Every structure is written in structure tokens, then in C-alpha cells.
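It would be a great kindness if you could assist me with a short task in structural biology. Thank you for your consideration; the sequence and its C-alpha cells are set out here.
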Amino acid sequence: MTTQLHPDDQELVEAAAGVARTRCRGDNHTMAAAARARDGRIVTALNAYHFTGGPCAELVVIGAAAAQGAYELDTIVAVGDRDRGIVPPCGRCRQVLLDYFPTLKVIVGSGDRARAVPVADLLPETYVWADHQLDTG
């Protein structure tokens, strides 16, 4: 199930694009992410590239949101520097986003094709980590 880009989602894209435009510097920070918390706050972050595999912007925004007391996220988007536009999350981020926020919407696509989709739709035949934990109680 997909939904057309809502004005609130467009605001999220613009927040991430603004951070990408003004804060991305060199090779270490090339992606920005913005997420909307359940209470309406927008949290932004940058990736921290490192040759050992530093965290993507989507993962950094999860930590930034938690540091601000926003533990429930509704929607997330990543935008590339140099006006690359919306960039879909990598496989690792898709799995982490699903495990942390199973009802999260992720903005993907570009231009008129931009849309918010449930994170589970980005992982066909999903593996949900919580479903496979042993009950030790």
C-alpha cells in the first residue's frame, strides 16, 4: 500500500534537503535524513561515513531522536548531497528501521513519483527480529 506525498511528508523532504545542502561536507557527510516523531517534531541528522562502515543518516537520526526523547517515529526520508534528491535506505537501514519502528513510513521515489510506503513493503518476505527471539521468561 502506498500513499501520495502528503504536505507533511514534503516538509520532511525539505528539512532533509536543507540539511544536506547546508551541512554536508566532503566525503564524511554526504547524506541527510529527517524523521517525524509521533508528537510532530522533526529530527534531522547526517551520515558519518568511515572506511570501516560508519552509520547511515537514517541510523544517526534514530539516535538523535532518542536523545531528544522522541522514541516513536512515524515517517523518515534520506536525501543526498549535491542535489541528488531522495535516496532509498540501504538494506541494513531497512532492517533496522523495521525492527525499531514496524509501522514506520519511508519516503522513496523522486519528483511526482515520491511517495510514503510502509517500511515492511521495502523488505519482501520480511524477517522481523522480535518474532525470532527465544522466550527466556
